[in-house]
Design a protein that fits this description.
single chain; 370 residues; alpha+beta; 13 helices; 23% strand
């Protein structure tokens, strides 16, 4: 296939006077109808939560904890444990001694009781507790908008009417054109599970996390939620489980208010700009194509072009060393001479052109025979 488009060749072969007459008389109208609807649903958050939740489970199954000592002075009969600290405290507080019997046994009225309890109220545990609550809130927010696929609907149509005249010839065209593009770009499905199933499974796993002893204890204690910026403790920095938790934490902080992007355009209008100009040109090319049905006019013009090409090919064949510039100069010089003669006609140009081409051919032939 030739690199040059056929329509370009068609235009170049057409009569310039005919083209000018057509363009001067052209009148056209165009109406455009657009319906564009694009929804970009983002499911990245769901992938991150699904990847991270097992690390949160690891943390809550093996939580950080510390021992809390609760000191309380109680009646002796209520004391559960008597420790070294209890004796030291009694020695410093002799007013708590009720009596010392004949065997030098000390009978206190009250004594220090120390209760030791484990607590999950660490910064790291409160961080995970807060993260789980944030996950729930984020999912509830997303449920209002996410249960729809990403899609693109792009429907375009136009009506074009044009008319023109070339001499007494009337030319008209009516064109209805439609374009429709509908694509589903992503529905949140993964590994054979649809979006609803994935979200439901994620919610169930979050419920499992909330049923762990750590989460229940922190909820009963109404611990303070962790606020950004997050403290980078040694555990949070070095523990692999916490490193994944931090990635999810940062993502939720940055994208909490994100919404699915929905762009809708509905327009119906009369076009009178560049688009109509392009269709005016297409109308012209359609007309020039129609002219090819006039075999006499079309074939004569093609014949002249073929003869011209054949002559040039013979000149080049006789003198292969001739450059393109030399050939252009030779022909251009002779045409210029004839054009600038006041009484010159196209027949005169052709005669001079023919005369000098024949003269040049004769010269080349005699040179080849010598």
């Amino acid at each position: 296939m030739d690199d040059q488009l056929n329509v370009i060749d068609l235009y170049q072969r057409a009569d310039s006077k005919r083209i000018n007459a057509f363009e001067r008389k052209i009148k056209s109208d165009m109406v455009v109808d657009l319906h564009y609807d694009k929804l970009e649903a983002n499911f990245e958050w769901l992938d991150i939560m699904e990847d991270t939740i097992r690390y949160l489970d690891n943390i809550l199954r093996n939580p950080n904890r510390f021992i809390i000592n609760e000191d309380e002075v109680v009646k002796v009969e209520l004391a559960k444990h008597v420790t070294v600290e209890s004796i030291k405290h009694l020695a410093r507080n002799t007013n708590l001694i009720q009596e010392i019997d004949e065997n030098d046994e000390v009978k206190p009225s009250k004594i220090l009781n120390i209760n030791k309890e484990e607590s999950f109220d660490t910064y790291e545990n409160r961080f995970i507790y807060t993260l789980i609550i944030n996950m729930e809130t984020f999912i509830q927010f997303k449920k209002k908008t996410i249960l729809a696929s990403s899609y693109l609907k792009d429907d375009k149509s136009l009506q074009y009417k044009g008319a023109s005249m070339v001499g007494n010839e009337r030319i008209s065209i009516e064109l209805n054109m439609k374009s429709s593009l509908h694509e589903n770009k992503g529905d949140g499905g993964k590994d054979g599970e649809n979006l609803v199933t994935r979200v439901d499974k994620l919610c169930q796993r979050i419920i499992d996390l909330k049923n762990t002893q750590v989460f229940k204890d922190l909820a009963r204690a109404h611990v303070a939620l962790v606020r950004p910026p997050l403290k980078k403790t040694n555990v949070i920095l070095k523990n692999t489980n916490f490193q994944y938790a931090v990635i999810l934490w940062n993502y939720l902080q940055e994208h909490f208010a994100d919404e699915d992007k929905n762009e809708v355009i509905n327009k119906n209008y009369a076009e009178d700009g560049e688009l109509k100009s392009l269709f005016d040109e297409a109308f012209l090319m359609a007309y020039l194509s129609l002219l090819t049905l006039n075999k006499e006019e079309y074939d004569v013009k093609n014949m002249k072009e073929r003869v011209m090409k054949q002559v040039i090919e013979k000149i080049v064949d006789l003198n292969a060393s001739m450059t393109e510039e030399e050939l252009k100069d030779l022909i251009g010089e002779q045409i210029s001479i004839v054009k600038y003669k006041n009484n010159a006609t196209m027949d005169g140009v052709e005669n001079v052109y023919k005369k000098h081409i024949e003269k040049y051919i004769t010269k080349i032939s005699s040179m080849s025979l010598s």
